[in-house]
């Protein structure tokens, strides 16, 4: 059995896809690391949706988990390896938009902010939304120095909207009263 540890990162560097070594606080590492964190939170959200019997949500979250791995790989590409991995496509963004529109049509209109809570599935949707927003900020920081494909940026932006609507939808499906905040 091979070891999980290599000791090659002990001095504060890591390898990008293709072998290029960079500092562990490089904007690319920050960006794909935050997307990785989001993926772990999405896995928990998927488990909670599964427990609630929301099979449609589970299927969508499974697809999102695959997309996030694709995004992580795109963000982790080092010199000389560009264009060799599958990428987020405009159709991936359109799929999210269609799901957002569907969830919006099924949810009552709101004219204020909603406060997360009421059920684990609802709360975890909002945890995912906030981590997704942080990932988006890290990606924009990265994009100031390195090329980032526009569909990837659009996807992450729409994903946070989807996660917000998923939380609202879960409240409806679970019979949880949404808390409003009007300031």
Describe the secondary structure blueprint for this structure:
Layout: E1 13-15, E2 21-23, H1 27-51, H2 55-75, H3 90-106, E3 113-115, H4 120-143, H5 150-174, E4 179-181
Antiparallel strand pairs: 1-2, 3-4
What would the principal axes of the Cα set say about the shape? elongated
Mean pLDDT: 92
Largest sheet data: 2 strands, antiparallel
Alpha carbon gyration radius: 18 Å
Termini gap: 57 Å
How many alpha or pi helices? 5
Structural class: mainly alpha
> Count of DSSP E strands?
4
Low-pLDDT windows of residues:
none
Strand content: 5-15%
Give the strand order, joined by hyphens, for the main sheet: 1-2
Considering DSSP H and I runs of 4 or more, what fraction of the residues is helical?
55-70%
Order of helices and strands: EEHHHEHHE
Protein architecture, described:
- There is one protein chain.
- With 183 residues, the protein is mainly alpha-helical.
- 61% of the residues lie in helices and 7% in strands.
- The chain contains five helices and four strands; from the N terminus they run E-E-H-H-H-E-H-H-E.
- The chain has helices at residues 27-51, 55-75, 90-106, 120-143, 150-174, and strands at residues 13-15, 21-23, 113-115, 179-181.
- The strands form two sheets. A two-stranded antiparallel ribbon has the order 1-2. Strands 3-4 form a two-stranded antiparallel ribbon.
- Strand 1 (13-15) and strand 2 (21-23) form a beta hairpin.
- It is elongated.
- The mean pLDDT is 92.
